[in-house]
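Holo prediction. Input below; ligand is zinc ion.
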Amino acid sequence: MAHTRFGRKAMHAGKRTCIGCHTRKDPNELLRFNLVGGSLVCVPEGRPRTGRGVSLCPDRQCVRRAIKSRAFARAFRTSNDVFQDLCVDKVLAEALNAYKTRLVEVRGPGGPGHEVLADSLNNMIIRLEQAIKE
Ligand SMILES: [Zn+2]
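Structure of the complex:
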């Protein structure tokens, strides 16, 4: 039994599930949000992703589905009232802001040597900007 559980874990190592479309993806392809003081806070790539969090595709449809299906409340085990004012644009704007801030840090003093991370952050920023325009 223990072997089976370990095997399953290893098979899905590192993958996260989008709470909108339920697809398993590499964590760096997904947005990650924590709930801090009743607000969704995006944790960009390269930051420790600790505590209870949700993963979402940087995709308007996935964010909309997550809001409609009350997936945020379920994932954070809280009342859906917390997310009453949540809308797709708010979620995407928070993520874009977090990734842009992170990119400035990575490219700033003490940041050299993080070219791979900077590229990855930049790719997510481009995807988010497209999603916001849609
Ligand atoms: Zn998705």
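The chain has five helices and five strands. That is the main takeaway for now.
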